[in-house]
Amino acid sequence: MILLESTGSWASLTGRMHPLLVHLPIGILILALLFVLISKLPRWQSLRAAIPFTLFLAFAAAAFSCITGYLLSQDGGYEERTLDTHFYLGIAVAVISGIWWVAYRLLKKSPKIELVLALVMLALISITGHYGGTLTHGDNYLEAAMPAALSGFSKKAVAAGTSNYKDIGDALLYEDLVQPVLNNRCISCHSQQKLKGGLQLETLALMRKGGENGPVLKDSMPEESELYKRIILPENDEHRMPPKGKPSLSPAETELLHWWIACGGPAGKKVKDLPKNPRISAVLAAMQPSKPVDQLVTVPEKTVGAAPEAAIAALTSKGLKVLPVAENSNYLSVTAFTAQTFNDQDAALLLPLKEQLIWLDLSGTAVTDQVFGIIGQLKKLTKLTLKGTAIKGKELKSLNQCAGLMYLNLVQTAAGAADIISLKNNKQLEQLYVGQTGIPAKDLQELQKQLELVKIDTGGYRLAQLPGDTVEYHKVANN
Question: By Cβ atoms counted within 10 A, which residue in 120, 278, 385, 438 is the most buried?
């Protein structure tokens, strides 16, 4: 039988009671504050008799809390500056509570001193508690939970919520994607403030240095790296990270960390420059900063002059609707809902509006592939809809001249996957609709692989049948 030597002690056990006991003086002091305030009302003056005893209990609890806090600090693993600040503030709480108790007994008729001590105590409790939370949860534990309405007041919250890339391919794998995951999930226990296991994960250099058990990274070998091995352990395993009770990494975050280590744990490398497998491609596609359709087609910030009235009139005479995209804007939207006879020759009427036209909908018109020779010249287009037209997609590559095109609808057309792939050079394209085009599933997979950063909608949605969908209602005759 193997006997394990115990490393515990009464001092260590007493110290670890600090998180439990530290709330006791806080609660008692707040109770004393309430007694002081409401006892000034005639109805509650009888509470003043309980204030001295309450203050004594608060002083005793605060003093004992300081002792347990000191014993806990001897275990190590905390950043010294923050620890010292929290420790001395805790002593100040105990001292001020003792002074308040003595002052209350000696100066019962001095409300000004009583009020000053109460305010000082409230401030000390708040600041001491904040530094205690910083030691336990990290220095951004408040900022990380701030709602949008408050995040503007915190530089840290703002920095954590901003990305340095608009295209996931241009993101730096470690700096933009991996490091934020570590900051959100791991830094609270592995930083200067709380050095659990002697391990810091704030920088790549510290990560490679490792902790008490050595390096946590083995380049190109995720399954052999402690950083990855521990996050995939069962939840009840004592070595699992983050430990039970703290938010775990999501499947996407886990896959991202695995990919980064498999790539050699690089720094300064862009996503587009690294090899990818289908799983990480799916994860990256979901991380692409995308915008809803109504934001995709927003008006460009650059102003433009008014379109020629004669050109607008010519399109209107063909049955097209020409409208400004926003109030006080010269950018235009052209739709052909009531112009089914609009054809390739008529499309030349669009050219005088090439500086103003950003949304174009030719759904159901008589245009063919020849129209792309015209549309390719409308370089300000951000949204193009060709639903239900006779195009076959042979000239789709002309749309690469529309550098700002973000939305393309090819539903109910004969466009093929091979022709659509020619749009991969269009860097702004974000949403592509190809429902009812007849593209085989195999070709759709290749299309998504080639246009990995584009959200491709294939349509074919079916709502699940609910039990209520088959319920029949009958009118019951009154007896």
Answer: 385
